[in-house]
Design goal:
With 456 residues, this protein is of the alpha+beta class. 48% of the residues lie in helices and 10% in strands. It has 17 helices and 12 strands. Belongs to the cytochrome P450 family.
């Protein structure tokens, strides 16, 4: 939000003036991919480069994005590197499947993620948020709190309660540990992941396969435990809905293996992205205390802890705008990568089979042609009275047929959690090093800062 001090601009990697050469580029992709785009990518709407014998186009032109994601999505598929990195965690779930299997999954999942279905889960979300805030308050009496691990636990707890009707006290720490260990090594793309065909073995394929075996056994155990547990309340959970829903065209439901892969997809996508979004929102609000006070006043007046559903129904517009602006500056999926299956034309540029098309929300959301003060934190740009962003310039959840099916759930969760946090605490960050991105699979912070939290 603009103040007398001027716009609040959070720290971010300085784009290189020129395209990175091979080894610096590969290091950036491995350690912090948002540092790989040169300054011209933030000014031009299509940039081209050749790397490892392949041509890639970075596309931030709205009509070009529409062509890739909406008008001709069948021509643009996941790259081998994406499948190598994600499949051990997600199997053949919705996020990485293609063609007829993807269409079946999307049709079958849709009823479980309607706004009405999400509304029914609000009490479960609110209960998990309340328990997390109680834990944080106890820690805050003793000094600064490393909020990020608490937000991770909260996101897992919400996943457990909304998906399985049970808490994650028995499985949460192991689940988090497995995800973190995979991300530290096996989840980082390597050179051979990018250049070898998917049918050729890459060096990390074996350890990823071994991880996959342990991961599948673990998820099967969680689902089996859920089958013998009684539901924690009258609310239906997502596992119930996914077990009962049917493809409206074929009448077929999910097999146990397909159901497990959907569970894995929702656990990973929801857990990682929600926790990171809330951490970034806290960080931005520490940089801008005036905006924090405005959001906190709205959260307190909404009665979010007593009536979360009512608070969501039009009483948290500014808190929601903070979430939207956080997703602009720190989109969880910092890049959408596709490989062209055949020739096409995108934004006036010819595309050949095998070309790589990159649509990076990180660059798109900070692009000089699309946004006023693109690097500044300004939630007012997302208030109802503001002009909406031009289509295909704001993609925190993607676009087209493959837009994130859980977007409504994620926004509900993040808005309730942030409102509850702000209604209860004033948040300050001790002096020290800035928090920077470490964008590998998602846009994570490079460290877990400790916040001073004082009761309001």
């Amino acid at each position: 939000m603009a103040t007398e001090r001027g716009p609040i601009v959070p720290p971010a990697p300085v784009p290189p003036e020129r395209d990175l050469s091979l080894w610096p580029y590969l290091r950036a992709v491995r350690d912090n991919a948002v540092a790989s785009w040169p300054a011209r990518a933030y000014r031009e709407t299509v940039t081209e480069r050749h790397l490892l014998g392949r041509r890639s186009l970075t596309v931030t032109d709205p009509e070009g994005i529409r062509r890739i994601l909406v008008d001709n999505p069948g021509n643009y598929v996941r790259t081998p590197a994406t499948r190598r990195v994600l499949r051990p965690m997600l199997g053949d779930g919705l996020l990485i499947s293609e063609g007829a299997p993807w269409r079946h999954q999307r049709r079958t999942l849709a009823p479980a993620f309607t706004p009405r279905a999400t509304d029914g889960l609000v009490p479960l979300i609110a209960a998990a948020v309340h328990d997390t805030l109680e834990s944080i308050e106890g820690q805050a009496r003793r000094g600064p709190v490393a909020v990020f691990p608490e937000l991770h636990r909260m996101a897992l707890e919400i996943a457990g309660r909304t998906m399985f009707s049970v808490g994650m006290e028995h499985h949460g720490e192991r689940l988090r540990g497995m995800m973190e260990r995979y991300g530290r090594r096996l989840g980082r793309p390597h050179l051979l992941d990018m250049i070898l065909p998917i049918t050729w073995p890459a060096p990390l394929d074996l350890p990823r396969a071994l991880f996959r075996r342990r991961w599948v056994r673990f998820l099967d155990r969680i689902i089996a435990d859920r089958a013998v547990e009684e539901a924690g309340g009258p609310a239906r959970d997502l596992l119930d809905l996914l077990g009962e829903t049917r493809d409206p065209e074929t009448g077929r439901g999910f097999t146990p293996e397909e159901l497990r892969d959907q569970v894995a997809t929702m656990l990973l996508a929801g857990h990682e992205t929600t926790a990171a979004t809330l951490l970034w929102a806290c960080y931005l609000l520490c940089l801008d205390p005036e905006t924090q006070e405005r959001a906190a006043a709205e959260a307190a007046a909404s009665g979010v802890e007593d009536d979360p559903a009512g608070a969501l129904a039009g009483r948290l517009t500014f808190v929601r705008a903070v979430v939207d602006e956080t997703l602009r500056l720190y989109p969880p999926a910092f890049v959408i990568v596709r490989a062209a299956r055949g020739p096409d034309t995108v934004a006036g540029h010819p595309v050949a089979a095998g070309d790589i098309l990159l649509t990076p929300p990180w660059v798109l959301h900070r692009h000089r042609a699309h946004w006023r003060d693109p690097d500044a934190f300004d939630p007012t740009r997302f208030l109802p009275e503001a002009s909406p962003p031009r289509r295909f310039t704001y993609l925190p959840f993607g676009a087209g047929p493959r837009v994130c099916i859980g977007a409504s759930f994620a926004l509900t969760e993040a808005t309730l959690a942030l409102a509850g946090l702000l209604a209860r605490f004033r948040i300050r960050l001790p002096p020290g090093e800035p928090v920077m991105t470490a964008a590998i699979v998602t846009t994570q912070p490079d460290r877990s800062p400790a916040f001073h939290l004082s009761r309001r």
